[in-house]
Amino acid sequence: MIFKSVPVQRLGTLFLCLGLLAQTGCFQQHEPADFVVINGPDPESLDPAIITSQADGRIVSALFEGLTRFNAITAQAEPALAKRWDISGDGIVYTFHLRDGLQWSTGEPITARDVVYSWRRAVDPATASDYAGMLFYVKNAESINAGKTADLSQLGVQAIDAKTVRVVLTAPTPFFLELCAFWTLAVVPEKAISRHGDQWCLRQPLSVSGSHTLEFWHVRDRVRLRNNPLYWDASNTRNNVVDLLPVESPATAINLFEAGQADVIWDKSLVPTELLDALSQRPEFHKFDYLGSYFVRFNTTKKPLDDPRVRKAMALAIDKARVVAKYTKGGERPAEHFVPPGTGNYTSPSGLAHDLDLAKRLLAEAGFPGGESFPTDLEYLFNSSPLNKNIAVELQRMWRETLGIQVKLRQAEHKVYLAAQSALDYHVTRSSWIGDYNDPNTFLDMFMTQNGNNRTGWSSADYDRLIRLANATTDPAKRNELFRQAETILIADELPILPIFFYVGINIYNPNRIGGIHPNILDIHPISAIYAKKASSAAK
Question: Is the domain of 360 the same as that of 480?
Answer without folding.
Answer: yes
